[in-house]
C-alpha cells in the first residue's frame, strides 16, 4: 500500500466489473431484502432492487463505446424511472451525481472514484434531507462514502478503499436495527419500526460489497 | 380482514385501471405517453398548463380531475407509490402550451422526491415550471412546520382554482399566486374506523380495534394522533371541526368551502349526517358555509373513514371555484 497503488487507474471494464458484482450480490439476497421490507413496508424492496439490477445490466449490455459519464448518467436516469417509491429516484440520483464527477480524461484512481461517490451523495442531498440516524439508505451510504474518502486520503488502492467502504456500509446498515424510522413510509410505524434492519440501508451495503467483490474478481483475472 | 377485490393479476392493476378509466370517459380523458392521463381536448395555446403526480389506489384522485378547468395532465404511480421523474418530465412537456406549467405536488416523501428531481430536469430542459406543494393536513405536523404536514383532499380546490385561473389566461406567476393563496387558507383532518387491504399484497394497511377510531390517520395508513372509542357523528364532527377552525383561525362572518371526502367504505348516508353536524356547529359560530362538496374524491381502497376539509374563501377564490369545469369526477356548469 502506498502512493503508487492509489494512482493505479481503473478503467471502464473494471467499473463494469464493480457493477456486475453489485448485481450478483443484490440478486443473491433479494428475498432477504423483501423479507426485511415486509416488516416495515409493503414487502417489495427486493422486487424493486431486482428491477435496479435489470436496469444496470441492460445499460452494461448496451454501453458499447459510450463514454463513462454518459454510461453512468444513462443508468441514473434508468433507475430514476423505476416506479415504486423512493428507491429508484434515490439510487438514480446517486448515479447521476457520480456521472457529473467523472474526470474529463475518464482515468479513475482512488481519488477520482472518491470524488464521484461524493458527487453522488451531493446529488441525493439536493432532493432529500435524510441524514444518519433517520433509518434510511443514508445510514449505510454516508459512512460508505466517508470510509472510501478516508482510505483514499491515506493512499489506499481503489480496491482497499472499496473494502473499507463496504465495511462501513455494513456497520451502518446493522446500526439501523435499533433505530426508529424518521423519514419515508416506515416513519408511520413509529416505535414499531425498531428491531428490524432497514431494507434500503441493507441494499446499499450489498451494493458496496458487490462493488468490492466485482473489482477483486476482475483484478484477480487480470493478474491471471 | 381478507382482501376481496375484483382485480385480475395484481401486477397489472394500475395499467388495467387506467385503461378502463380512460375508456369510460373518452370525451374528457385519454392515455398519453407512458400511461399518463391527459385531457382529450387540449387547452388552447398560450395558457398555463396544470400538472400533478401521485400514487394509484386512491381513485378517483388524482387523475379523476383531468379535464377542462382543472388538470391538463396527471402522472399516476404504482399503488400508493410516487411515479418516477422521467414520466413526470414527459408530463410537464405535454402540459406545456407556451405559457409555463404549474406542477402541483401533494406533500408525501416519495412525491416530493420525484418532483424535486423532475424540477431539476425540467429546468435543464428549459421548461418554465413552478411547483406548488400542498400540505394542509393538521394532524401530521405542527403549524410552525408546514413542511411536515401532508397533502390530502386539499388538492381538489387547488386544481380547481389553478385550472380556472389558467383557463381565463392568467400568467404562470398569477396562477401560482392565487393557487398558493388557496393552499394557505385550507386545512384537512382525517378519521379512520376500518382498515383497507393493499391490492398488490392483500395485506391490511393498518389495524384498529373494532370499537375504535383514529383521528389524524394519513392517506396510506400513517399513524394519526388520536385513537379513541368510536363516537357519534355529532361528537366526531365536533372534535374534528373545532381543531380545524382553531388551526385556520376562522372568525365569525368568514365564508368557508367545506368538503367531506369519504375514504372508500364510509357511506354517503354517514357523510351527509356529519355534514349536518358541521353546518349546525358553524351556524352557531356565525360562520357561513359558502360552498360544499360531499363525496369520494380521494380514497384509500376500502378504508372506512373520511377527511373533513375547510377553506377560507374570498370573492376571488369563490369566483374561480364557481368557474365551469368538465372532468369525469367534478363538473360545474
Summarize this, please?
The complex is a heterodimer of chains A (224) and B (333). Chain A is built from ten helices and no strands.
Q: Total domains of chain A, how many?
A: 1
Q: Give the termini separation of chain A.
A: 21 Å
Tell me, rounded to a whole number, the average pLDDT of chain B.
Answer: 95
| Dominant shape of chain B | globular
**How helical, in percent, are the residues of chain B?**
25-40%
Annotation, overall tally of beta strands of chain A: 0
Helix/strand order of chain A: HHHHHHHHHH
Q: How many beta-strand elements of chain B?
A: 14
Please indicate the count of domains of chain B. 2
Report how far apart the termini of chain B are.
42 Å
Can you put this structure into words, describing what you see?
The complex is a heterodimer of chains A (224) and B (333). Chain A is mainly alpha-helical. Chain A is built from ten helices and no strands. Chain A has one domain (3-223): DhaL domain (Serine Threonine Protein Phosphatase 5, Tetratricopeptide repeat, Alpha Horseshoe), CATH 1.25.40. Chain A is globular. The two termini of chain A are 21 Å apart. The mean pLDDT of chain A is 90. Chain B is an alpha/beta fold and 333 residues long. Chain B has eight helices and 14 strands. Chain B has a six-stranded mixed sheet with strand order 1-2-4-3-5-6, with helices on both faces. Chain B is globular, with a radius of gyration of 19 Å. The model of chain B has no long low-confidence stretch (mean pLDDT 95). The A-B interface holds A 42-44, 77, 80-86, 88-90, 92-93, 126-128, 183-185, 187-190 and B 77-78, 80-87, 109-110, 113-114, 116-117, 120, 198, 200-201, 203, 218, 220-223.
Amino acid at each position: 500500500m502506498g502512493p503508487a497503488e492509489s494512482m493505479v487507474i481503473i478503467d471502464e471494464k473494471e467499473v463494469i466489473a464493480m457493477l456486475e458484482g453489485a448485481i450478483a450480490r443484490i440478486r443473491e439476497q433479494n428475498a432477504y431484502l423483501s423479507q426485511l421490507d415486509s416488516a416495515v413496508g409493503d414487502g417489495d424492496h427486493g422486487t424493486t432492487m431486482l428491477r435496479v439490477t435489470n436496469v444496470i445490466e441492460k445499460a452494461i449490455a448496451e454501453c458499447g463505446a459510450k463514454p463513462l459519464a454518459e454510461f453512468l448518467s444513462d443508468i441514473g436516469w434508468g433507475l430514476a424511472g423505476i416506479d415504486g417509491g423512493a428507491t429508484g429516484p434515490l439510487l438514480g440520483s446517486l448515479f447521476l451525481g457520480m456521472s457529473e464527477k467523472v474526470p474529463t480524461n475518464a482515468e479513475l484512481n482512488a481519488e477520482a472514484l472518491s470524488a464521484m461517490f461524493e458527487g453522488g451523495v451531493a446529488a441525493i442531498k439536493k432532493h432529500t434531507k435524510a441524514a444518519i440516524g433517520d433509518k434510511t439508505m443514508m445510514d449505510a451510504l454516508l459512512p460508505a462514502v466517508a470510509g472510501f474518502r478516508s482510505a483514499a486520503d491515506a493512499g489506499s488502492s481503489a480496491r482497499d478503499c472499496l473494502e473499507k467502504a463496504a465495511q462501513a456500509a455494513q456497520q451502518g446498515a446493522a446500526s439501523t436495527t435499533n433505530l426508529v424510522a424518521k423519514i419515508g413510509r416506515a416513519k408511520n410505524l413509529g416505535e414499531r419500526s425498531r428491531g428490524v434492519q432497514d431494507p434500503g440501508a441493507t441494499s446499499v451495503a450489498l451494493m458496496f460489497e458487490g462493488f468490492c467483490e466485482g473489482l477483486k474478481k476482475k483484478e484477480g483475472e487480470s493478474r491471471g | 380482514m381478507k382482501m376481496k377485490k375484483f382485480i385480475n393479476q395484481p401486477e397489472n392493476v394500475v395499467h388495467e385501471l387506467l385503461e378502463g378509466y380512460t375508456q369510460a370517459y373518452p370525451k374528457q380523458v385519454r392515455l398519453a405517453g407512458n400511461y399518463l392521463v391527459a385531457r382529450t381536448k387540449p387547452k388552447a395555446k398560450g395558457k398555463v398548463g396544470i400538472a400533478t403526480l401521485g400514487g394509484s389506489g386512491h381513485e378517483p384522485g388524482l387523475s379523476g380531475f383531468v379535464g377542462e378547468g382543472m388538470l391538463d395532465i396527471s402522472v399516476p404511480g404504482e399503488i400508493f407509490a410516487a411515479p418516477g421523474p422521467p414520466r413526470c418530465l414527459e408530463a410537464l412537456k405535454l402540459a406545456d402550451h407556451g405559457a409555463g406549467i404549474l406542477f402541483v405536488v401533494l406533500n408525501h416523501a416519495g412525491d416530493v422526491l420525484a418532483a424535486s428531481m423532475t424540477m431539476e430536469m425540467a429546468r435543464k430542459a428549459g421548461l418554465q415550471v413552478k411547483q406548488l406543494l400542498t400540505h394542509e393536513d393538521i394532524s401530521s405536523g405542527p403549524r410552525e412546520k408546514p413542511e411536515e404536514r401532508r397533502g390530502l383532499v386539499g388538492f381538489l380546490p387547488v386544481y380547481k382554482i389553478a385550472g380556472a385561473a389558467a383557463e381565463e389566461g392568467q400568467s404562470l406567476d398569477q396562477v401560482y399566486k392565487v393557487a398558493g393563496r388557496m393552499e394557505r387558507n385550507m386545512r384537512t383532518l382525517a378519521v379512520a374506523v376500518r382498515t383497507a387491504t393493499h391490492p398488490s399484497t392483500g395485506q391490511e394497511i393498518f389495524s384498529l380495534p373494532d370499537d375504535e377510531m383514529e383521528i389524524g390517520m394519513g392517506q396510506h395508513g400513517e399513524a394519526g394522533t388520536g385513537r379513541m372509542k368510536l363516537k357519534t357523528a355529532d361528537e366526531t364532527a365536533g372534535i374534528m371541526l373545532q381543531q380545524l377552525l382553531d388551526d385556520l383561525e376562522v372568525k365569525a362572518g368568514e365564508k368557508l368551502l367545506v368538503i367531506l371526502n369519504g375514504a372508500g367504505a364510509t357511506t354517503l348516508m354517514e357523510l351527509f349526517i356529519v355534514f349536518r353536524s358541521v353546518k349546525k356547529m358553524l351556524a352557531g359560530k356565525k360562520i357561513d358555509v359558502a360552498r360544499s362538496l360531499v363525496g369520494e374524491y380521494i380514497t384509500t381502497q376500502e378504508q372506512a373513514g373520511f377527511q373533513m376539509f375547510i377553506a377560507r374563501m374570498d370573492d376571488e377564490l369563490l369566483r374561480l371555484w364557481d368557474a365551469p369545469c368538465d372532468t369525469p369526477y367534478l363538473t360545474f356548469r
